[in-house]
Amino acid sequence: MFCVTTIVVLYKNYLLFTFVEYSFPFISNYGRRCMRCICEASSGGCDIKLSCEKGYCGPFQISRIEWTDAGNVTFSADDPERNNNLPFISNYDWRCMECICKATIGGCNRSLACEKGYCGPFRISKIHWIDAGNITLPADDPERGDAAYQACSLDYLCAQQILLGYFHRYTIDCNGDGVTNCDDYAMMHVNGRGQCFPPVNRTERGKRWWDKYTECDPLGRRLYKS
């Protein structure tokens, strides 16, 4: 168990800042100074503005496995089970997700809005969102329909959950090589679950997408050739 304490810092009656302190059971020889030094070493100065990249998040660069091992700690208003019913998917990792995003229009531009029925850096359609399980942001409700779909698709981390839900539900060996890996997930993302079998590069637009995807090299083919 742990408790949460909100600390307010005042100077001459002016509010400088507030922060939340999580109080865990006593750990021998572990104090604020130790925590601060670990943070500064983890992210080059303990940058509290850091987002998630390559499977690590925030100023301490915490992985999903570390978060799980720590007991799935969340904000008081959050739920560790939120969108957590998406099982492990074989051969799908942060590198695959990153390459799919980079190949998409805008080169994984997180500021992309909704246009012509597609939203966010992954250009997710509403049908795609529904097929993935109507995944939403923490405080949102799928009953809000278009608004909930757009809000999640525009949020980089929430959009990743949409892809995860979609690929888990419709995993298939699209290229028929006997292995389900990132190539198949990429084909599924571009072609759709019902017609993932045709090569993505069969059209000029598809060729541009596939060239960007292979240049990103999610399966490390160039590494193996060298």
From TrEMBL:
It is an enzyme of class 3 (hydrolase). It catalyses: Hydrolysis of (1->4)-beta-linkages between N-acetylmuramic acid and N-acetyl-D-glucosamine residues in a peptidoglycan and between N-acetyl-D-glucosamine residues in chitodextrins. Its EC number is 3.2.1.17. Keywords: Antimicrobial, Bacteriolytic enzyme, Disulfide bond, Glycosidase, Hydrolase. Disulfide bonds join C96-C182, C101-C108, C114-C119, C152-C158. GO terms for molecular function: lysozyme activity. GO terms for biological process: defense response to bacterium; killing of cells of another organism. This is lysozyme. It comes from Exocentrus adspersus.
